[in-house]
């Protein structure tokens, strides 16, 4: 696979689901990938990337940004409150808003900094103990809390349990978004992005299918 293969498949899946080819944002997940692979994808003209650790992103993206204009960086992994200021500096979107304390910290720091990334609330659709995200039953309440804080809420994000049929989780996420009038749906990874798009994904997070197998992580 390569960037152009995946781009073609994303666009085709969007058209198959009755939407325009450019209605789905392809986030190339560059975590743990060697710089040379990331640079190759940047050189092909792609600008939208995802990282799951603030520290790792801070170590490489300021340098890439000196060479490549218009990088659009998405945080797709957990965010600690004490890293919020750094995250606001680096990322244009955060997909992992998952608790009231974090939402309040983002609201306060965004006020101080004068800008805020687009935000997605992570929903733990599989109700897994080890996974981040609000439980489906708590989603409506948390969405309302974020709106009370005037946060720029774009949509919802989920990571389905590995051993389950992902489409059930995509459908659940879409349902929660719809009843809350949220249009953004961050769902779908290398193995299932086409089924996510069929169920309404607006943002797919694809790593290994673009860059190859990760060395670690
Ligand atoms: C690593 C990661 C991805 C990409 O996974 P692939 O299977 O390599 O496409 C997507 N979303 C999140 C939250 C991740 O951490």
Automatic annotation (TrEMBL):
SUPFAM superfamilies: PLP-binding barrel (SSF51419). Keywords: Pyridoxal phosphate. The keyword Flavoprotein does not apply. The modification N6-(pyridoxal phosphate)lysine is found at residue 31. CDD domains: PLPDE_III_YBL036c_like (cd00635). Residues 26-214 form the Alanine racemase N-terminal domain. Belongs to the pyridoxal phosphate-binding protein YggS/PROSC family. Pyridoxal 5'-phosphate (PLP)-binding protein, which is involved in PLP homeostasis. This is Pyridoxal phosphate homeostasis protein.
């Amino acid at each position: 696979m390569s960037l152009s293969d995946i781009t073609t498949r994303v666009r085709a899946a969007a058209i198959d689901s009755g939407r325009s080819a450019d209605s789905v944002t392809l986030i190339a997940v560059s975590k743990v990938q060697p710089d040379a692979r990331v640079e190759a994808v940047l050189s092909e003209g792609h600008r939208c990337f995802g990282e799951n650790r603030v520290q790792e992103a801070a170590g490489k993206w300021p340098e890439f940004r000196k060479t490549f204009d218009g990088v659009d960086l998405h945080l797709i992994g957990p965010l600690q409150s004490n890293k919020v200021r750094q995250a606001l500096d680096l990322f244009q979107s955060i997909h992992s808003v998952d608790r009231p304390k974090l939402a309040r910290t983002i609201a306060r720091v965004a006020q101080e900094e004068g800008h805020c990334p687009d935000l997605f609330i992570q929903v733990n659709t599989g109700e897994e103990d080890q996974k981040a995200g609000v439980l489906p039953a708590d989603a409506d309440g948390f969405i309302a809390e974020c709106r009370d804080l005037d946060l720029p809420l774009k949509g919802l994000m989920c990571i389905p349990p590995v051993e389950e049929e992902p489409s059930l989780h995509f459908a659940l996420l879409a349902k929660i978004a719809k009843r809350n009038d949220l249009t953004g749906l961050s769902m779908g990874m290398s193995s299932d992005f086409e089924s996510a798009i069929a169920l309404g994904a607006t943002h797919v997070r694809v790593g290994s299918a673009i860059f190859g197998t990760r060395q670690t992580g």
